[in-house]
Amino acid sequence: MRAWSIRAIFSVLLLGMLAARIQASHDMAYDVRPALVELLASRGLEARAVPANESSLLKAVAFEPPRCNGPVHVFPVQLNLQEAPLFEAAVGPGREPHIAYLDRTWRDPDRLALRLEWLKHKTLSIWGLGRYTTDTTALLIAAPTGCRIAESIDWSPLWRRPRTGS
Fold first, then answer.
1. Across the chain, what does the average pLDDT equal?
2. 72 in Cβ contact with 142 (< 8 Å)
3. Rounded to the nearest 10 degrees, what angle do helices 111-126 and 3-26 cross at?
4. What is the pLDDT of residues 123-133, one digit of tens each?
5. Rg of the chain, C-alpha, whole Å
6. Of 65, 33, 113, 105, whose CA–CA distance to 97 is shortest?
7. Cα 9 off chain centre by
8. Fewer beta carbons under 10 A from the terminal one: N or C of the chain?
9. Maximum pairwise Cα distance, the chain
10. Is residue 27 pLDDT above 70, yes or no?
11. HSE of 13, CA atoms in CB hemisphere, 13 A
12. DSSP string of 57-110, one letter each residue
């Protein structure tokens, strides 16, 4: 057998294993709302889970931060933003959307930026260097206009890997 054919076979096997690991991470999505309520409580904010209703098909966590003119709603959404058609109705008038994922917060939903962030951390994770689980759940944060709570909270603990050993 030629060297190029052996390399091709191993390349196909490596890509297949990588694709299987990536697909497995997509299947592990979980309900982040209890962890979100706990994270907000650790920041001194009283939060509660809000069930989906007719006005919003997305499930949310709501809290009322000081110095904001109304409640803030946080919606778990998929990384590919498949719920994007619902964003306008979920956010509502007089409110600003933000997207939080891992250690970043974006003002506008950006599928490419989210996917690149996921890919960066997924690659680090494969090599054993990742700080985060690469779950495909992001957060849509709907805050009243002028409320800067989305940028002031560190959302990354929701995705941080638990420490092992030592």
1. 81
2. yes
3. 120
4. 888 888 888 88
5. 19
6. 105
7. 35
8. C
9. 71
10. no
11. 6
12. SS-EEEE--TTSSS-EEEEEEETT-TTHHHHHHHH-TTEEEEEEETTEEESS--
Task: Please give the Cα distance from 160 to 143 (Å, whole number).
Answer: 24
> In the structure encoding, which two tokens stand for residue 155, read together?
């959302």
Inter-residue contact 133 to 33 (CB < 8 Å): no
| pLDDT at 154 (0 to 100) | 93
Name the residue among 61, 62, 59, 56 with its Cα closest to residue 89. 56
Q: Are strands 137-144 and 95-101 parallel, antiparallel or unpaired?
A: antiparallel
The pLDDT of residue 158 is above 70: yes
- At 1, the amino acid letter reads M
* Cα separation, 141 vs 95, whole angstroms: 10
Please name which of 98, 41, 110 lies closest in space to residue 74, comparing C-alpha atoms. 98
User: How far apart, in Å, do the first and last CA atoms of the chain sit?
Assistant: 47
Residue 55, classified by CB atoms within 10 Å of its CB into exposed (0-12), middle (13-18) or buried (19+), is exposed
Owner of token pair 């690991």 = 21
pTM to 2 decimal places: 0.74
